Amino acid sequence: YSAERLLLAALCSVCQALQDGMLFPTESPSREVKDVSGLWIFRADESPERSRGFEQQWYKSPLAETGPVIDMPVPSSYNDITQDAQIRDFIGWVWYEKDVWVPARWIQDRGTRIVLRVGSAHYYSVLWVNGVKVTEHVGGHLPFEADISGVLRQTSGNQCRITIAVNNTLTLETLPPGTIQYMTDRSRYPAGYFVQNTNFDFFNYAGIHRPVLLYTTPKAHIDDITVETTFSDNIGLVSFNVSVLGSSKAAVKVTLSAQDGRCVASADGSRGVLKVTDVNLWWPYLMHENPAYLYSMEVQATAEDGQTDVYTLPVGIRTVKVTSTQFLINNKPFYFHGVNKHEDADIRGKGFDWPLVVKDFNLMKWMGANSFRTSHYPYAEEILQMADRHGIVIIDECPGVGIKDIRSFGNVSLAHHLTVMEELVRRDKNHPSVVMWSVANEPASEMPPAGFYFKELVSHTRSLDSSRPVTYITASNYARDLGAPYVDVICVNSYFSWYQDPGHTELIGLQLNTQFDNWYGKYQKPIIQSEYGADAVPGLHSDPPMMFTEEYQKTVLQNYHNVFDQKRKEFVIGELIWNFADFMTSQSIIRVVGNKKGIFTRQRQPKAGAFLLRERYWRIANETGVLPTWASCITVI
Ligand code: GCB
Questions:
Q1: CA separation (Å) from 633 to 46, 391, 629?
Q2: 317 and 430 in contact (C-beta within 8 Å)?
Q3: What's the first-to-final CA gap in the chain, in angstroms?
């Protein structure tokens, strides 16, 4: 299968330290953004080797001239858009194309740099502009871009044909890993029949999942900005580091403004520390009466020719620390009462969708959640920006999910995993909402290579960002987990009375207590229950409770909560329900049209468990935090 060979070659060629920044494209006096998402055309390469598109060079001419094409919205997964099961379950190369107009002044002004950026595409992408290859990228969930100024100026000018080939094949070395299995028994499978095997529990949606943008910067431009914040008494400190490309002598000026527009600090130079007197710290939702305070940092870089590039970055001033029993935000104990999510919805699959994002934040705030984990991959940047603005705390997870095969602990895998962490930290380092990195979910951390693998991974992540703790999510036994010595916080998933002792909710108390005491006894690190829950098919009822009913889900949660309430006085620092909403999975005998552990349905309607958690989260917030005045009516529930 040719895609696997191609992927391995691509993986090896990108295993080098990242050179450039990946600032979120925003408009400014010197920058324009043109969203070219919308309706694209699409063709799946159904040839047996999935290689016809490359052999026939589909990128060289309009895609419609190569064969039949269909409409495809961007951003969206392609899987659930048609009535064709073959498209839903397709594995291999699919081709997207769109013709766009580039403003004439962008082309004419040679001082303008034109960039094409894809928010994310699943999984391995190759990009052409007017038939010329401009970049390729391995990995979903993270952005990639190419400077296309040269190509546009050399080819047909204002008209721009963008072609993107995307391949969802996963290999032992990708994140997440997967394998292609050929079925050779001719009495059961036709010739050439293959399937993709994975070890994760969500549908492997594919396509262009986030917006495709064209944006401009001046030739000499701000390439990256890194801020780190701290405070002492009432003085906030913002250290900044600005990198400029296209000019070696650009003059950099940095200005920090408060929410009312007042300038509170400024500095000249590409590195330095801004001092903010009477600082307004960034506080999580429900921890302060004025949470999520954001300053605005304007960076100006003026090149020798007088051109100035301007970029404005929201900055929240806060600190994060971990002790052996606590998670401290701004030196105060923070208790995670939150959710695990997925990027997942009807029709659009993993495609970015503003109505869904805003609805989900409204639901999280309604239920009193102060945090979520980006299980099991990085979410759209727009979601992190929402979290910054609403004070929702994030554990930011990379796509290291389903690492179960010992062959996925080799050098190529590790090198790629390190690169993905570099891409993740580069993208998300400036978000105050992000308080911890998670490098993997439920890897086979008891396999011998895991010790070395996680030592490298955690220490590399720390070297990229020393201001945040690092963890991975374990489901392994405390005595056999080989990565736990290296992490800052222990995150444990367990499903007592579901996968173990199904139906026996009376055992949860004993088993969960044992779990916590064992882990804490061995490592003396704070613990987050990073997943727990039970499936509930909405509308299914029974009393006494039986598995799959709403009552059973509630009973499981209640039994877990009793133990959390004892242990949060000691070393348990958080609880994240699995899951916020029902989500699609691959088809199997343990899934009823997807995973039903949501406390909301996939359409975001509450099950009984949602009301239980709402009561609990507001109660905890009432005990531990400071509620906003508008919320006083809710606290009486
Ligand atoms: C887990 C996984 C998650 C699954 C969940 C389940 O441990 O981390 O991806 O969806 O269990 O419901 O089985």
A1: 58, 20, 9
A2: no
A3: 58
- Nearest residue to 528 (alpha-carbon basis) of 561, 485, 568: 568
Query: Which ligand 1 atom is the nearest neighbour of the CA of 376?
Result: 9
Q: How far is the CA of 421 from the centre of ligand 1 (A)?
A: 22
CA dihedral over 514, 520, 526, 530, signed as positive or negative: negative
DSSP code for 102: P
Q: Whole-angstrom Cα distance, residue 374 to residue 437?
A: 10
User: Cα separation of 41 and 56, whole Å?
Assistant: 18
Q: Where in 168-218 does DSSP place strands (E)?
A: 178-182, 194-198, 207-208, 212-218
Nearest-angstrom CA–CA distance, 198 and 374: 19
Ligand 1 binding residues, C-beta < 6 A: 201, 376, 441-442, 475, 493, 531, 578, 595, 597
DSSP tag of 73: E
Using the predicted structure, report yes or no on whether residue 532 has a pLDDT greater than 70.
yes
Give residue 535's pLDDT: 98
Residue pair 222/311 in contact (Cβ under 8 Å)? The answer is yes
Q: Within a 10 A sphere around the Cβ of 328, how many other Cβ atoms?
A: 14
CA of residue 77 to ligand 1 center, whole Å: 22
* Confidence class for position 2, pLDDT limits 50, 70, 90: low
Mean pLDDT score, 358-382: 98
Strand 271-276's sheet: what is its strand order?
221-232, 235-245, 271-276
Q: Which of 472, 493, 496, 599 to mutate to test the pocket of ligand 1 (most atoms within 8 A of CB)?
A: 493
- Give 97: exposed, middle or buried? Use CB within 10 Å, 0-12, 13-18, 19+: buried
Q: Would you state the pLDDT for residue 595?
A: 98
- Cis before residue 79, ω within 30 degrees of 0? no
Find the 397 Cα to ligand 1 centroid distance in Å.
15
Predicted TM-score (pTM) of this structure:
0.96
Ligand 1 atom 5 nearest Cα: 201
Q: Which residues contact 438 (CB under 8 A, 6 or more apart)?
A: 373, 374, 395, 396, 397, 398, 470, 471, 472, 473, 491
Confidence of residue 18 (pLDDT cuts 50, 70, 90): confident
The order of strands in the sheet holding 263-268 is 263-268, 251-257, 295-302, 308-315
What is the Cα–Cα distance from 148 to 163, expressed in whole angstroms?
13
